[in-house]
From TrEMBL:
Belongs to the class-IV pyridoxal-phosphate-dependent aminotransferase family. This is Class IV aminotransferase. One of its GO terms (biological process) is carboxylic acid biosynthetic process. The keyword Transferase applies. PANTHER family: AMINO-ACID AMINOTRANSFERASE (PTHR42743), AMINODEOXYCHORISMATE LYASE (PTHR42743:SF11). InterPro entries: Aminotrans_IV, Aminotransferase-like, BCAT-like_C, BCAT-like_N, Class-IV_PLP-Dep_Aminotrnsfr. Pfam families: Aminotran_4 (PF01063). It comes from the Bacteria. It comes from Aeromicrobium erythreum. GO terms for molecular function: transaminase activity. GO terms for cellular component: cytosol. Coiled coil: none annotated.
C-alpha cells in the first residue's frame, strides 16, 4: 500500500498527515472514487476522474485538480507489483471549522493504492429496509458521507452476505451500498433508472453500452420485491465487474450464473480487454 497527499508521497500510509480539522473528517464533506487496477493499469480512470469532478461540483466544493491527482495515482502505482488492486481517490473541502460551514483553505487531495483480491464470480445479497433518498441533496453524488452504507453493509456481513441492496423512498429497487444491481425478467436484463437515486456507476454505464448490441437490456424502475421473481440477479461494480448473485435474503436465485449473466460476463471480458481506459 502506498499513500499520497497534496503532491507528496508519504513514507507510510500510517504517517500522520491529515489535519484533525479537515472537513472530510469533521463532517464527511468530500467525494471519492475507487478505481480497479489490472496488471498495474487503472481501469476506466478518465471516467472515474470525470465523475469525481461532477460529484465535487455537485457537492459545491469546487473542481479538484485532476492533473495533480493523476500525478498522485502514478506515484502510488510506481514500484508496486499489482496483478489486481485498487486506487482510492479522495477529495475533501479541506481544513474547516468544527461545524458544518466550510473553511477557505483549499481542497485536500488524497490517493491510496493497494493490492486487492478479486471478488468471487458468485455472491449473496440481502435487502435492507433503509431507503436511499432519491430527492436528497447528495442524490447521485459519490460522497464520503458513507455512514449509512457502512451500517447497511455490516448488516449484510452479519447475515453472511457480501452486499446490501436498498429501496428508494418510493419502495423501488435502487442500488447496493457499493454497486449497481441488475436482474433478468422474461429474458430481459433490467436495471433501475438513475431517477431511482442510484449512483451513475462506471461499470453500469459501460455494461449498458457494451451489452446493448447483443442482449435485451432496459432501464426500468420497479418495487424492490421484483427480486423475488427474478430469473437471475447481478451486481455490477468497479471491482466486481459483472457478478452473479446466488441468494437474495437467503432465498436461492434460479440460476447463478444464469445464461444471460454468463453472456454478459463474456461480453464484458471481451470489451474490457480492448483498452484500460474505455
Amino acid at each position: 500500500m502506498r499513500a499520497w497527499l497534496n503532491g507528496k508521497l508519504l513514507e507510510s500510509p500510517d504517517e500522520p498527515a491529515l489535519s484533525v480539522l479537515d472537513h472530510g473528517l469533521v463532517v464527511g464533506d468530500g467525494v471519492f472514487e475507487t478505481v480497479a487496477v489490472d496488471d498495474g493499469q487503472p481501469f476506466a480512470l478518465t471516467r472515474h476522474l470525470d465523475r469525481l469532478a461532477r460529484s465535487a461540483e455537485g457537492l459545491g466544493i469546487g473542481r479538484p485538480d485532476l492533473g495533480l491527482l493523476r500525478e498522485g495515482i502514478d506515484a502510488t502505482l510506481d514500484g508496486q507489483d499489482l496483478p489486481f488492486g485498487r486506487v482510492r481517490i479522495t477529495v475533501t473541502s479541506g481544513r474547516g471549522p468544527l461545524g458544518s460551514p466550510r473553511g477557505d483553505h483549499g481542497l485536500t487531495h488524497v490517493v491510496v493504492t493497494e493490492p486487492a483480491q478479486k471478488p468471487p464470480r458468485v455472491a449473496t445479497i440481502i435487502t435492507v429496509p433503509w431507503p436511499r433518498n432519491e430527492r436528497g441533496a447528495l442524490s447521485g453524488l459519490k460522497t464520503t458521507s458513507y455512514a449509512e452504507n457502512a451500517r447497511m453493509v455490516e448488516a449484510a456481513r452479519a447475515a453472511g452476505a457480501s452486499e446490501a441492496v436498498m429501496p428508494n423512498t418510493q419502495g423501488h429497487l435502487c442500488e447496493g451500498t457499493g454497486s449497481n444491481i441488475m436482474y433478468v425478467l422474461d429474458g430481459t436484463l433490467v436495471t433501475p433508472t438513475l431517477a431511482s437515486g442510484c449512483l451513475a456507476g462506471i461499470t453500469r454505464a459501460l455494461a449498458l453500452e457494451w451489452l446493448a448490441d447483443e442482449l435485451d437490456v432496459v432501464e426500468r424502475d420497479a418495487p424492490i420485491e421484483v427480486l423475488a421473481d427474478a430469473e437471475e440477479v447481478v451486481l455490477v461494480g468497479t471491482t466486481r465487474d459483472i457478478q452473479a448473485i446466488s441468494h437474495v435474503d437467503g432465498r436461492p436465485v434460479a440460476a447463478a450464473p444464469g445464461p444471460v449473466t454468463q453472456r454478459a460476463q463474456a461480453i464484458w471480458a471481451r470489451e474490457a480487454a480492448k483498452t484500460s481506459d474505455p
